[in-house]
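Help needed: design a sequence for this.
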């Protein structure tokens, strides 16, 4: 999982500023925080800068009227400087310098979100004299495009031929000479959005970043267009839309000049949208995308709110209704990706929505990145410890002041009855992956005064590793892998008990099945929500939830393991 962005300025009076670059890098960091890279192209030269630190002030050579930005979370190739993105191939050399100025005509640069099996093309390129200092698939794809160009193919055809040689899930941007190509894999697993107006041509993993260049981008979606035969065709008028699955777009000097489809195999390009079997990553809507992002052509926050409406009541219909009237059910979002779901659930059920958990100032100033994409278990644990601060007044029982007089005594009586009924806190998160955050927030809720805690996941249990969208290779890392929901609850209770025994032994009596429950959404409900939201029956990749691609995963796993051994130089 990575983030990519490209901006070309059409208006010569406008420039992309250092502040723009900083905002874009921070806007993509939730998709990959191991490193960031900036490339700018001016007067026949390409400047590349890579770093794993915080983006500071950018020198003039980083700025200009055409830039590409990428952030990386390593799924192939270890986290080391030679694997930092963007990938750069100049002549036949794999350039891994953290800063470089290169001839644009001799250089191919790749901004990449996804992964692909590139072991075959790596071996072929090495026989042709290419030497790789990087061990990731991005460098191999970039080198193969370079190789095809050197053979005499046009940039567009070189990219098309390269993408037909590999399998995987990706959205990708190549830069070469004075041209840029944006493309999306044939199955449409990874998102890529585009925006065109009179001043800019933009491509991004996150549509919210378009707001840095056009504050009203969200109100101008491109309309669908059809030719005289009724076929859907690519539309490049002003506005926003997703890059279609398999679409390849050629940009020159900020203007779209040509298009093609991955694997078309034709000499003449066509703007007809070819029908392909889509496998959009459903987890993008649950977790990856920011709330204000338009993902796969749909608004992420609205979808999350609607999807959460299918979550069940905490108790039976009658008990839930009585507790709601008594004001004893509190919905608390687990920030930040749980906010939209919690709001939708609370609004639909009529429960109280309270901000009881906030991101700590220390975490925001020091890390400001998602714990899920940390490369090791140790880092994920330490980040979870530092991430949240709890508001005790939301979780602790309410203390009623004694009142005098007849009416006061009546009020005291009913307040006493109310105090006998404990509050139920429903902690709503987008998903439960390995259970670390869930255990942490449930434990902290009890330490801050809660008596009954239910952890709601707006996604179904994640039971399988993934080689396409979620990028989790080891299913064993997942708390739901090989466990039923009842067994997951037992495991969560055991982990919470260990923390409470250490921090507050006097509360251990509260850590029971009666007071702790983990609840998941149903996959069929989420798909039904997605279909109704898009007004059509969609095609989604749901393998991490239901194992629906088990017939492919064995082949894919073997290919990725072999690819890893080849890229790391373990086998030839």
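Sure. Designed sequence:
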């Amino acid at each position: 999982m990575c983030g990519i962005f490209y901006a070309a300025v059409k208006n010569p009076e406008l420039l992309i500023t250092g502040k723009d670059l900083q905002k874009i890098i921070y806007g993509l960091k939730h998709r990959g925080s191991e490193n960031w890279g900036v490339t700018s192209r001016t007067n026949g030269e390409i400047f590349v800068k890579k770093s794993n630190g915080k983006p500071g002030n950018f020198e003039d050579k980083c700025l200009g009227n055409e830039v590409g930005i990428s952030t990386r979370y390593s799924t192939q190739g270890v986290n080391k400087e030679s694997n930092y993105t963007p990938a750069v191939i100049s002549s036949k050399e794999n350039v891994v310098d953290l800063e470089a100025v290169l001839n644009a005509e001799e250089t191919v640069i790749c901004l990449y979100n996804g992964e692909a099996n590139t072991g075959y093309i790596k071996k072929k390129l090495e026989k042709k004299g290419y030497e790789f200092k990087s061990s990731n698939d991005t460098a191999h794809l970039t080198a193969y495009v370079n190789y095809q160009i050197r053979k005499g193919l046009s940039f567009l055809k070189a990219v098309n031929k390269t993408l037909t040689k590999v399998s995987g899930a990706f959205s990708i941007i190549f830069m070469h000479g004075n041209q840029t190509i944006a493309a999306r894999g044939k199955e449409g697993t990874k998102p890529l959005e585009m925006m065109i107006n009179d001043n800019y041509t933009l491509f991004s993993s996150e549509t919210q970043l378009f707001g840095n260049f056009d504050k009203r981008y969200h109100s101008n979606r491109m309309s669908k267009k059809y030719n005289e035969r009724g076929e859907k065709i690519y539309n490049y008028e002003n506005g926003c839309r997703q890059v279609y699955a398999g679409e390849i777009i050629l940009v020159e000097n900020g203007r779209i000049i040509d298009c093609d489809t991955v694997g078309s195999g034709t000499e003449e390009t066509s703007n007809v949208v070819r029908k392909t079997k889509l496998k959009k990553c459903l987890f993008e809507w649950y977790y990856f995308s920011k709330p204000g992002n338009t993902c796969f052509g749909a608004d992420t926050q609205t979808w999350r709110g609607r999807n959460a409406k299918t979550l069940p009541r905490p108790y039976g219909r009658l008990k839930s209704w009585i507790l709601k009237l008594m004001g004893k059910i509190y919905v608390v979002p687990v920030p930040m990706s749980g906010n939209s779901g919690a709001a939708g659930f609370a609004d639909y059920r009529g429960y109280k929505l309270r901000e009881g958990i906030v991101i700590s100032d220390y975490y925001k100033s020091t890390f400001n990145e998602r714990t899920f994409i940390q490369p090791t278990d140790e880092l994920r644990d330490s980040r979870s410890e530092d991430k949240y601060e709890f508001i005790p007044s939301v979780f602790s029982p309410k203390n009623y002041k004694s009142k005098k007089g007849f009416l006061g005594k009546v009020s005291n009586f009913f307040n006493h009855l109310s105090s006998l009924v404990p509050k139920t806190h429903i902690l709503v998160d987008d998903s439960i992956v390995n259970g670390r955050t869930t255990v942490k927030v449930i434990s902290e809720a009890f330490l801050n005064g809660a008596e009954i805690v239910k952890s709601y996941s707006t996604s179904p249990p994640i039971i399988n590793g993934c080689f396409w969208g979620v990028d989790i290779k080891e299913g064993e890392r997942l708390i739901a892998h090989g466990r039923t929901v009842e067994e997951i609850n037992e495991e969560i209770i055991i982990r919470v008990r260990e923390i409470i025994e250490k921090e507050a032994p006097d509360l251990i009596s509260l850590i029971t099945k009666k007071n702790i429950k983990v609840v998941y959404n149903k996959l069929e409900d989420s798909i039904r929500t997605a279909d109704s939201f898009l007004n059509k029956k969609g095609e989604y990749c749901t393998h991490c939830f239901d194992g629906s691609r088990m017939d492919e995963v064995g082949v894919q796993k073997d290919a990725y393991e072999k690819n890893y051994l080849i890229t790391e130089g373990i086998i030839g």
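Residues 558-562, 564-572 have pLDDT under 50 and may be disordered.
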